[in-house]
Amino acid sequence: MKKKIPTFKTDEEAENFVDTADLTEYDLSGFKRVSFEVEKKDSKINMRLPAPLLDAVKARAKLRGIPYQRFIRETLENAVTPEPKGRH
């Protein structure tokens, strides 16, 4: 049975743990994937949507645990990112 990840009170405690612990000994199944947005957002858009569509977007974003505007941005990014060759 794997060890449970301890709770940390500071970032410094967490960083020290990651630097010194053998993470293969710990249960990491409770962690979810996260992505970091580092690109500057310097352009704005304004669009009108039917209320039910916006409600559905907000609900889906809430399920993912992210703000709805980030969900919209990720959806747009996925729509314009080319698929790897060989996949259709």
UniProtKB/TrEMBL annotation:
State the source organism's domain of life. Answer: Bacteria
Supply the name of the protein. BrnA antitoxin family protein
Originating species: Caballeronia novacaledonica
